[in-house]
Amino acid sequence: MRTLLPALTHLRYQGIPEYMEDLVAQIDAPLLESVVISLFHQEVLEVSQLAKFIRRADKLSLLDRAQVTFHNSCISVTLSQELLAQVGRVNPKTLELNLTCSERDLRVSYLAQFCASCLPTLSPFECLDILDSFEFTWAWEDVIDPDPSPQWLELLRLFNTVKDLRLHKFVASRVTQALRGLPAEQVTEVLPALENVFVSRLEPSGPVKEAISEFADARQLSGYPVSIHIWGGQFQWGE
Predict the structure, then answer these.
(1) Which residues, at least 6 apart from 178, have a Cβ–Cβ distance to it below 8 Å?
(2) pLDDT category, 134, cuts 50, 70, 90?
(3) Which of 125, 102, 96 is nearest to 34 (CA)?
(4) pLDDT in tens, 41-97
(5) Do residues 103 and 164 touch, judged by C-beta distance below 8 A?
């Protein structure tokens, strides 16, 4: 039997994933409004009990926006409600998870491992933001990964209900190169519900513009077009 905590509205945890999973599997908190979880790095990341715990909290059961931020030594995942974000209101009903991972080459795969364990039992996400912090950009902007595409595609395949994708400039180069390399028969298998892509500081020419242009053309030919926007403004594709 689980223990009911009827007055609990905020939860903060820092430690190893296994203990956190044991903890949340044994409690119910129906009035929970915000959760902040910081997990130390483990070889295998299993958080299915956390997802079920969130589902049992009425105020956190309708989270539909995921924001991923890459930092120097960790990845932050924040889940919230897109409707309140659109009208500029502060949304107290959030779930924030900080995943410690100091090895840069493993971060995207580690994030995919977390999402594969957690996302299937949560509500469908329609909005996905992938951001990079200032210190992460400064530290790695001149480093070129040998081939980051498989890791990014592994992650993006988990968000098959996302309609709006927002990308910071640094991660945009990685994500758009991965999408650009999709074979024609797979161009709608990754992010099949996608309708809009927003890229911050999108240059009128360059590798990001070229990559996102090829992806947009491929989606147009497939019958599932996407609109490309400058984050903070927009333009008609093809101008």
Answers:
(1) 148, 149, 150, 152, 153, 156
(2) low
(3) 96
(4) 777 778 889 989 988 888 787 788 899 998 878 888 888 876 555 544 445 558 898
(5) no
